[in-house]
Amino acid sequence: MAPVRILTVVGARPQFVKAAMVSRAIVRHNEAGVQPSIVEDIIHTGQHYDRVMSQIFFDEMGIPRPVVNLGVGSGLHGETTGRMLAGIEVEILARKPDWTLVYGDTNSTLAGALAAAKVHVPVAHVEAGLRSFNKRMPEEINRLLTDHVSALLFCPTKAAAANLAREGVAEGVHIIGDVMYDAAVVFGEIARERSAVIADLGLPSKQYALVTCHRAENTDDSARLAGILDGISGVAREMPVVFPIHPRTRKRIAQLGFEERAKGARLIDPVPFVDMVRLEQEARVILTDSGGIQKEAYFHGVPCVTLRDETEWVETVEAGWNQLVGADADRIVNAAKKAVEGAPIAEYGDGRASEKVLTHLLS
Fold it and tell me: Residue 302 in contact with residue 284, Cβ under 8 Å?
């Protein structure tokens, strides 16, 4: 029986986490001798690159390294997406996959989906159906377009599937749970065993706030960034604050002369993925504008304060784990002080979403 050939497109840090889970499931499938076997080729667009993360995913987890790195890097949306699209199309035509598998909502996601759809290779989208209903976000445009050219749409929740139904997308839709929950189970244990970041930074367990802020809607808007930094400074008067700061955010703070606005917070360089997981696990509260970290906070049992006006992960808000505060300094401080644990969220699955992806691809 001929193997099923899958071309996986990744480019940004969170996509490596998700793809690692499915790649591990592929390895287990092949080792078990189940037919048909699966051949996976991973294409790295080069949108992000983290050497430490790559070592963990490709060396320690035994998953295949990318067959090519397109080295596109960052830049204007049209330029980077176009270069990715051209490079991915070449690889699809050369490798003739049965499926092109894409993850999430980045420019790499959209480029992979468009390249495959234009040469009639079916697209499978992991994390389909998510909507913030804010089309000013580039990620929202990427989600919409990717979903509407996909043949298989893997939804993490019922709400995601309902979003697709409202848009007239019903065929090929499957609710499988969240691949990121699979990752939280695996990497959570690795972080507890291997990361020394809490001791290295001298942080008191369950007594500090962890902050991330990187989205363009916050960093490019000086008023929003000022409000967020003022809020962080206010939280720092209540508890220790550690802030692994994204290069874009650090650059904007310097450009605007906002260094004093985050006074009291401990700004550090970005940390390797496993260390970030450990920081999440031991935090009292997490303040973030990241979609993925909102969920990771819940997975690790930590309350979250989201520095946005809306979220695609509505379940975390409805269950009481997550508070939406926008960029208002007072709301940020009050939410951090009042943050408490919420109710269980059953929708994110049982840690086997990756296996369900394979089941549908093979069927």
Answer: yes
Of these residues, 77, 148, 174, 214, which one is catalytic? 214
322 within 8 A of 289, measured Cβ to Cβ:
no
- Active-site residue, 214 included: yes
Q: What is the CATH architecture assignment of 4-175?
A: 3-Layer(aba) Sandwich (3.40)
Superfamily in which the 197-346 domain is placed by CATH: Glycogen Phosphorylase B; (3.40.50.2000)
Question: What are the domain boundaries of the chain?
Answer: 4-175, 197-346
Instruction: With a cut of 60, say whether residue 157 has pLDDT above it.
Output: yes
List the one residue out of 233, 222, 241 whose CA is nearest residue 330: 233
pLDDT of amino acid 14: 85
pTM of the prediction? 0.91
Helices (H), 129-237: 138-148, 158-166, 179-194, 197-201, 216-219, 222-236
Alpha-carbon distance of 154 to 132, in angstroms, equals: 17
